[in-house]
């Protein structure tokens, strides 16, 4: 059964997550808090995976797919209206991770899966570019890796684990959520704890 257009993800759904995170006084060192943030991220990645799946299976054409992706991206990457700065920073981390997911999905729809190198090569190139402070190139390489993950390639976890903390590690974290979502696009229930 296909999802009606505009129903992949709503502002209300995103806001429900934000409200819950704000209420719970999130602490990244706490396992339940970390899981809540990961569920927020996975939930948005699942919406992306469902859009891509409907694109590949036919209900959505390229234009409609890109419109749906843009709609979800605008909801998820919008400014957050929360007073607690630490909570805003944590959600900003989730948004940063998801940025690469949206770009990878859009690139996949426009160009298909990248085939100039392996997923590992792209992630390593991204890490090298980040080390040289070329963040545009780093994001580009992560996006290419993301198109491969959408196309069915595996994200090698040993490569991800070797990354130093930074933007590339955050983007790869988002790609990990995307990979999980592509293999099992089950909805994360908002009331799960």
Description:
It holds the Pfam family DUF2150. InterPro entries: UCP022079. This is DUF2150 family protein. It comes from Haloarcula rubripromontorii. By secondary structure, the chain is an all-alpha fold. The protein has one domain. Helix content is 69%, strand content 0%. It is built from 8 helices and no strands. The chain has helices spanning 11-23, 31-57, 62-76, 85-111, 119-131, 135-150, 157-161, 167-183. Helix 1 (11-23) packs antiparallel against helix 2, helix 2 packs antiparallel against helix 3 and helix 4 (85-111) crosses helix 6 (135-150). It is globular.
Separate helix tally: 8
Number of domains: 1
Biggest sheet details? none
Helix/strand/pairing class, anyone? mainly alpha
Identify low-pLDDT runs: none
